[in-house]
Structures are given as C-alpha cells and as structure tokens.
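Researcher: Go.
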Amino acid sequence: MRLDIRPLATALLFASLLARPTEAQDASAPVRTSADSSYTDAQAERGAQLFTRVCLECHERVDLSNADFRLKWGGQTTFDLFKNISTTMPDNNPGMLAKTEYADVVAYILKLNGVPAGPAELVADSTVLSQAKMTLPGTTGAGNFSAIRRHGVLARGGISFARPAR
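Model: Structure:
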C-alpha cells in the first residue's frame, strides 16, 4: 500500500508561505507587538466597565480570550481589532461609542489575553494602532488556522486544500 503524501506536502508548503513576509512587508523592519500598543490598568478597567454595560449582553468574556479568539486575532494589528469593534459593535447601533471608549474596550481585551499594561494609554489612532501586531498567548502570528482544526480545510486567497476522501 502506497501512501500519497502530496496533499500534506502541499498544505505544509502553503503554511510556510503564509508565515513568510509578503513583498509589501520589509523583512528587515522590526515587528512591533501589542506590548508596543501600551494601555494602562485604569484604561482596561474603564473598558471592563463598558464591556459589562454594553457588550456582555451578547458576548461572554471567555469569547474574547479563548483559543479561537487568539487564533483569529493573533498576528493581526491592534487597529484591525479596533476597527472591527468600532464599526460593527454594538450590533444594534454600530459606532455609538466614542473612539476613546472603543480603545478602552480594546485595552480590556488585551488585558483579558495576558498582554501587560504599560505606562501610556492605548490611543484611538489608526496610524499608531496599525504599527503593532497583536502577540497573544498561544499564537504564532502566522494567521488563523482554526478552520483546519475544525473542518480539515484551509481556504485563503482563493486556494482551498481539503482532506482527501477516504
């Protein structure tokens, strides 16, 4: 019986390509992390209060710090998370909070995920937030591979790799 390893080899090749910098990225430039997007304990506390008042109706705290969350958001910029939350939440009135309040909620989410507080508040500035990649426990920053774990399928950029039928 001969084992066909081509699907596995193809998936590994694709995964290694995802982990490499793209042409648009400068491989020699230092990568900023979520620790560079500092927030204060006071800011995270304000975010916790907002979360309890506004977000807890639909979201549980564990949803913002579990493995799926870390896989989805690890490696993305702090601005990606800020933009997603500020343009889509709360569900019944997206954008109703002030930008500083959304920054407070993001600070709280960073705290939930073990990112340490720093000396300065997280600012609601797209340029600053776009410079920091979120490094969350349990992630490598290479991308979201939770679909592989759940479905055995990797689909990104129009390419789909599926488990061979048995």
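Model: The two ends are 14 Å apart (CA to CA).
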